[in-house]
Automatic annotation (TrEMBL):
Superkingdom to which the source organism belongs: Eukaryota
Official protein name in the record: AB hydrolase-1 domain-containing protein
Keyword Signal: yes
Signal peptide (from-to): 1-18
Lineage, top ranks: Eukaryota, Viridiplantae, Streptophyta, Embryophyta, Tracheophyta
Record keywords, A-Z: Signal
Amino acid sequence: MMFLLLAIVGLISYYVYKSIKPPPPIPLPENVSKKSLRVKLSDGRHIAYRELGCPKDEAKHKIIIIHGYANSKEVDLYTTQEMIDEFKIYFLFFDRAGHGESDPNPSRTLKTDTYDIEELADKLQLGPKFHVLGMSLGAYPVYGCLKYIPHSYYVYKSIKPPPPIPLPENVSKKSLRVKLSDGRHIAYRELGCPKDEAKHKIIIIHGYANSKEVDLYTTQEMIDEFKIYFLFFDRAGHGESDPNPSRTLKTDTYDIEELADKLQLGPKFHVLGMSLGAYPVYGCLKYIPHSCYQDIIAGYGNWEFDPTELSNPFTDTNKGSVHMWCALDDKQILRDVLVYICDKLPWIKFHEVPRVGHWIIHEKHHFEAITKAACTE
């Protein structure tokens, strides 16, 4: 499972992924062809990908998109058919290890993420030249490309915001129980959009002296807009759920995992802990190994190299470039940090964009400018 942890006024929501089946397709505007497939890597894992735009063998520009935190290959990017036709662009989106349809990598690091990209490109026969565009937290593997596979690549970096995480409403509801592997039963209540139609699935963990019948207020409009499915459940010994005499943080965590599996929630859902109900979220971080927490470990852990000491991998005979786009109203990525990196690495082309924040790549004209900058070199 994969989880995203958020803390907002006593509520903690934890975004979960499991490599079971693909997330619901998110339509991209004006795309040409698209399909979702998987390639088998040399270590036996599978990486899922999605192609978009000009046919690969006709493309003049091939761009690999690396999605951000708690996202997938289904990320929305806005482009036009005119730009695809003008520059003959082929886009390759893929699920990083443990995201979406891609198998998890228990030994995942910056280096393994980098070699996943290299092997994916080799398996799909992208040829000797392509761009790599990293979005938000997905930008860190770009540094890995510069360090570990600098030969023959155009490396290209950008930014992207995390997806918005909306909150609940009350529509249809029913209360049922599932039988766990140890024979106990967990009671639950469903709410909102039908599960098989939902784009967002949210598990609500109730607080102290409460139950699955806890009231949360939202609007039908929000449910319809975001296609949200809510799952409330009674923790062990609460409401209609059987008690667990051996109950611990670990058992509560595995109850959540098994409940999600029994109800076939699929590869992606949120966990939102309310007040005392927040503690199992920490259990998810500890006991469910394939979580978005690995993004933090790989992205912000030990890289084994100093990114400010990278050498320019490109020469007159091996042409290519690195671009860094800085949205001046970005509250997540500090301009001073990017300026410092570019001062140390003057061969990076630095772009400052005023009056735009971390959502820069989701704004059509900015994404077109970023793409055209790559395609016109």
